[in-house]
Write a structure and sequence with these properties.
With about 425 residues, the protein is α/β, with parallel strands linked by helices. The chain contains 15 helices and 13 strands. Helix 11 links the parallel strand 11 and strand 12.
């Protein structure tokens, strides 16, 4: 009988093998393309030109439907200007696929490695993405794509991406000027080419702010507490798990737990165990909505850790937060290369109070105190002005930059 254990490949090794395979396939593809071009050149007596008719002007790539809130304002702006653009998604149920655009073509390119295989052979002038890690693992630069532009999907420091997150992009679109310093430090330390860094603001924050104007303020009979931790070994659920959730239940408040979507991918056993121990009831629920606006609007206070959703909640809904002390391990992140304290650790005390494990037994008192304390208003104003520039204009500035970049590429070719 065949021993199936010898057939197991761990995810890291699988990603590496796929990367090697795609490198071989891509090299063969581009070599064949080069040979065919030279053959055409010889047969035509030296008159053949590079065929650019099937080169897409703009491709927007989203690895998950949860980033539609980042890209929708940009797609809307392309549509408004009647500029052709393609939106490629790795989510078969991405909301973008249902939007009846005329000039923006939406396309599902497959999930996982199938999506990256398509991207690695892409032919475009400019590719815009919020996915980090270009040229690090599965996602390789296509030789037929001229420029790769990254757009941040939260307004925190870019150094909190996993290692080498933005190193190999040609440009990065930022929400605030403060994000530039960390990127420049990494470029100097790693001796890599400098990227173009452009501050445009935040597209999804702009959209949330507009939506917030249209909804009535929520008034709850009893406090609604939203627990929205990030994912990974340093997250609240990984560090404190059952003890943390039990402390929430013991407050007697209405509890909503919204884990980061990646938690269900990276820690499925933990999530399954916690959901079984804490089933849904009238006073306790798990939230996995693609759009987090409604649950953020409903909550009176948020408890999180180092997740970027802290800024979405406090700066849009103008409410205080509680953040747990999880002894964040920076080793997987770009921030581990610098000796300075990360930006969010510096500003979180301006937005709310730290929750230590020793505070769990009187969590109800902590929550009541924070909800009634108005001293954090000034801190929210400070962080908002620093991290979210050009309010209401991000999509316009993003498309202005992309169009300007393509115009420059065209002039160079001419």
């Amino acid at each position: 009988m065949l021993n199936t254990t010898i057939l197991y490949i761990d995810p890291g090794t699988g990603a590496m093998l796929f990367s090697v395979l795609m490198g071989i396939v891509s090299a063969a593809f581009f070599l064949l393309q080069k040979v065919m071009l030279k053959l055409k050149f010889l047969l035509s007596g030296g008159k053949v030109k590079t065929d650019t008719k099937d080169c897409l002007p703009y491709v927007i790539f989203s690895d998950s439907k949860r980033y539609w809130n980042v890209f929708k304002p940009i797609c809307d702006e392309f549509e408004k200007r009647k500029i052709e653009c393609e939106y490629w998604t790795a989510s078969p149920d991405d909301p973008a696929l249902e939007v009846p655009y005329e000039y923006v073509k939406t396309r599902f390119i497959g999930e996982g490695n199938k999506a990256y295989a398509t991207l690695n052979l892409m032919k475009a002038d400019i590719c815009l993405a919020t996915t980090p890690g270009l040229d690090v693992y599965q996602w390789k630069r296509s030789k037929n794509t001229k420029k790769y532009v990254h757009i941040v999907h939260e307004i925190g420091e870019v150094l909190m991406y996993r290692m080498f997150g933005t190193d190999y992009f040609d440009a990065v679109l930022l929400s605030g000027e403060f994000q530039k310093e960390g990127i420049r430090k990494l470029e100097s330390m790693r001796n890599i080419r400098k990227k173009e860094l452009v501050v445009i603001g935040s597209t999804y924050m702009d959209s949330m702010a507009e939506k917030k104007k249209e909804v009535a303020p929520v008034s709850n009979d009893i406090p609604v507490v939203l627990a929205a931790p990030t994912w990974g070994v340093s997250s609240t659920l990984n560090r404190f798990g059952e003890k943390f959730l039990q402390a929430l239940v013991d407050t007697g408040f209405k509890i909503i737990v919204r884990p980061h979507p990646q938690s269900f991918v990276s820690d499925p056993e933990l999530m399954d165990e916690l959901q079984k121990k804490f089933p849904e009831s009238d006073m306790f629920s798990w939230n996995t909505d693609n759009d987090n606006f409604c649950v953020l609007n409903q909550a009176d206070v948020m408890i999180s850790d180092f997740s970027g959703v802290v800024f979405d909640y406090s700066l849009i809904f103008d409410k205080p937060v509680i953040y747990t002390n999880t002894m964040l391990d920076l080793s997987p992140y770009d921030a581990s290369w610098t000796d300075e304290e990360i930006w969010r650790r510096q500003v979180l005390p301006k937005l709310g109070v730290e929750l230590k494990e020793s505070d769990f037994e009187h969590l109800k008192d902590v929550i009541n105190h924070v909800i009634g304390d108005e001293k954090y208003q000034q801190g929210r104003d400070y962080v908002r002005d620093m991290a979210w520039e050009y309010k209401g204009k991000a999509a316009e500035k993003a498309v202005d930059y992309l169009c300007g970049l393509r115009e420059t590429l065209t002039k160079v070719e001419e």
